[in-house]
Amino acid sequence: MSAPRAAPSTLVLALALALAGVLAVTAGCAELRPVLAPADDLEDYRAFRVAAAEGTRLARAKRYLERHPSGTWAGEVRTAFDEEEPRYFAAAQQSREGIRRYLADLPEGPHAEAALALLVAFGSSMQDAELRDIARRVRYDDAKLEAAAVQRRAVGEGILAAVGVLLDDDVYGVPRADAPPKLRALLLGKDAPTWGGVPARHEDDHFFLLPTRPERESRLLTLEVSVIEEGGVVRGGRVEGSDLFVRWTEADQIVRLDSSAADDRTEAEVHAMGRLEGALERRFPSSACPDARKDRELYRRACNGWEAVVLPGAKAGDKDAIVISGPRDRKTEPPAAGPAQSPRDAIDR
User: Fold this and answer.
1) From the centroid of its chain, how far is CA 90?
2) What pLDDT is attached to residue 302?
3) Do residue 174 and residue 321 come from a single domain?
4) Strand-pair category, 306-311 with 319-325
5) CA 172 vs CA 231, 233, 236, 306: distances in Å
């Protein structure tokens, strides 16, 4: 005897629930993609998404697929390229200038050979010179894109490198003049003089561009690194800068943020802490170091004589600060020269 059939309404309900589950999983994966994607994958994808001109968009799509053939968004970018490129070539065939633009944007595109043939068919005594000019401009544009990407990456790399030095055991409990090579290099900077002592503070300007329309926007982050001294030896350090977290987020995610907007500042703080928590976890493991945040602090933990505090500025133009203090018992204690200075004291200074 065959099993009784489910009522139609029951089948419809089961199918609806199954479909809802699939959609929920799909949405969850889409939300996770930017978090799980490598930084260069996300950077090239964002460059593709923000491109307004059709030729630029296709050039960046091709660039993404060449660099990330199995990238997080490879399917989406490949579909867009396959649909848009034939239309772009068809429109380009209407004039010599259109063909020139196609070759400038896609010198190795799917229709590059056909475009060259059409260019020859149009005919001109200036043809060779014009083709050389196209190739030169393509190389120049590629070099500019690569240089801009390097500048943006340098922002986050500079911040995390400074934090990494301040998490090193060897930098604490010694006079600044006897600072280990890592700290000396950090405080002297890239263009270090060949004479003189080690300064207590160093500033490094990071310029970068955002590919916005109609014109690219320039940004500047002045990254400030300083040491906190007590009794003639180094006891802590600070990494700070005006709108530090906003500029960091703009450089990493290639987005334009308004440092005076509360929502944008919050987005920047979330991004910064996502990067910083990984760097701080080794020294301040969450399993052993309790969260001791106060007031507006984004982070405060203390473990084994170490302490770290992350405090954002209250408004646009204020400094965001990352303050770290090292253990007091790593070296022989010098004679006391005043009350100990905690990271919070250093922030309030």
Assistant:
1) 37
2) 94
3) yes
4) antiparallel
5) 12, 7, 7, 11
Task: Tell how far CA 211 is from the center of its chain.
Answer: 14
What is the total count of domains within the chain? 2
Question: Would you tell me the crossing angle of helices 127-166 and 244-253 to the nearest 10 degrees?
Answer: 140
Tokens 């002297």, residue? 188
pLDDT score of 309: 97
Domain range spanning residue 176? 155-348
Say which amino acid occupies 281: E
The answer to whether the predicted template modeling score (pTM) of the entire model surpasses 0.85 is: no
Query: Can you read off the two tokens belonging to residue 211?
Result: 């590919």
Mean pLDDT of 7-12: 46
Structure tokens at 114: 């056909």
User: Dihedral sign, CA of 35, 36, 39, 44?
Assistant: negative
Closest-CA residue to 243 (of 313, 311, 298): 313
Tell me the mean pLDDT in the region 39-45: 83
Judged by DSSP in three states, 172 sits in: coil
Has residue 22 been placed in a domain? Answer: no
CA 245/CA 248 separation, integer angstroms: 5
Query: Is 148 within a domain?
Result: no
